[in-house]
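Milestone 3.1: sequence recovery, worked example.
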């Protein structure tokens, strides 16, 4: 929508609703992490309240001075716009936060055309919070728009989904991401294409990596930890598991990203074994991937992939982080130094 990269169809639907005066009282933006859900929802909030008839104002593009509502919304200080976001140290959005939202919804707006509330990662609503939110979704006051984001609609109560207009966002093509990075950040074509490939359709991750080189450094460090774990013994694996478990309390999203990154890297090693190097995401890691592909048999790598994916699921289900990560790291395949004999059983499978 205007200054949003990609997602043309979703933007067109929202623009049409606004132009026709048929704004829905609740929207659900779904799609993979960092694909642009919050960015598009925020752009729509600005469009709903922009003082420019052709709005929303195009922020950060040097095209005139943005109007007051767009400036305040972009800075997160508009009195009639609020975002409910899960703090890093908590795993659920609480009932009290939704109760406070309901109290605010009942009040008249101070200056906006539409009072807007963004509930980010709505799949993390507690059961009581989700049921409480239903009351507002069923009978919202006029001029109130609720905007929820979630990875998948199926993670929410069906009654919540049924009261929202769902806007599905798919991963963006690598070419679109690379073109944006070249235009906005003046990256060389090779560097832009490299980041676009690593992003796997997640424009948010690509933008962060382009603007903050430490994002790539964190990625390289996380992959080095995985390689050390595959080569190391029980003690090294337990130490890494404990470090991740300690990090989970304050920075759960970082741990989620680490486990997903490891899963993608293991998937790349399987692609190398199948001779699909052209489809490898982490192309700059080909030498390390080839080494893992030589040292570990395909069944072992598939078991490692399943182990990492199961760890993410267990953590999302509020399993004890230390126990879940201990089990996951210890279940990773061994036999690094000497490839397992044909037909031998994977330690991960025995576990």
């Amino acid at each position: 929508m205007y200054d949003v990269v990609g997602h043309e169809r979703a933007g067109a639907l929202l623009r049409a609703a606004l132009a026709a005066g048929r704004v829905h009282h609740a929207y659900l933006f779904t799609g993979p992490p960092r694909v642009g859900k919050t960015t598009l929802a925020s752009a729509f909030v600005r469009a709903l309240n922009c003082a420019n008839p052709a709005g929303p104002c195009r922020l950060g593009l040097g095209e005139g001075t943005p109007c007051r509502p767009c400036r305040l919304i972009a800075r997160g200080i508009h009195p009639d716009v609020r975002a409910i976001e899960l703090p890093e140290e908590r795993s659920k959005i609480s009932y009290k936060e939704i109760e406070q939202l309901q109290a605010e919804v009942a009040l008249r707006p101070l200056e906006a055309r539409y009072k807007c509330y963004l509930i980010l990662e709505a799949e993390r609503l507690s059961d009581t919070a989700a049921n409480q939110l239903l009351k507002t979704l069923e009978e919202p006051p006029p001029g109130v728009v609720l905007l929820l984001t979630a990875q998948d609609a199926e993670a929410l109560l069906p009654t919540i989904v049924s009261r929202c207009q769902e806007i599905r966002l798919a991963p963006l093509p690598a070419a679109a991401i690379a073109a944006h990075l070249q235009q906005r950040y003046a990256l060389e074509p090779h560097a832009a294409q490299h980041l676009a490939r690593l992003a796997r359709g997640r424009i948010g991750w690509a933008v962060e990596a382009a603007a903050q080189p430490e994002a790539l450094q964190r990625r390289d460090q996380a992959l080095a930890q995985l390689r050390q774990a595959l080569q190391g013994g029980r003690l090294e694996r337990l130490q890494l598991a404990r470090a991740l478990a300690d990090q989970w309390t304050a920075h759960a999203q970082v741990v989620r990203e680490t486990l997903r990154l490891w899963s993608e890297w293991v998937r790349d090693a399987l692609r190398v074994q199948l001779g699909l190097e052209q489809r490898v995401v982490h192309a700059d890691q080909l030498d390390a991937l080839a080494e893992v592909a030589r040292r570990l048999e395909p069944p072992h790598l598939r078991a490692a992939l399943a182990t990492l994916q199961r760890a993410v699921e267990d953590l999302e289900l509020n399993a004890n982080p230390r126990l879940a990560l201990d089990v996951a790291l210890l279940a990773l395949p061994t036999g690094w130094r000497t490839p397992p004999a044909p037909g031998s059983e994977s330690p991960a499978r025995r576990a």
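Residues 8-168 form a domain with the Rossmann fold fold (CATH 3.40.50.300). The two ends are 49 Å apart (CA to CA).
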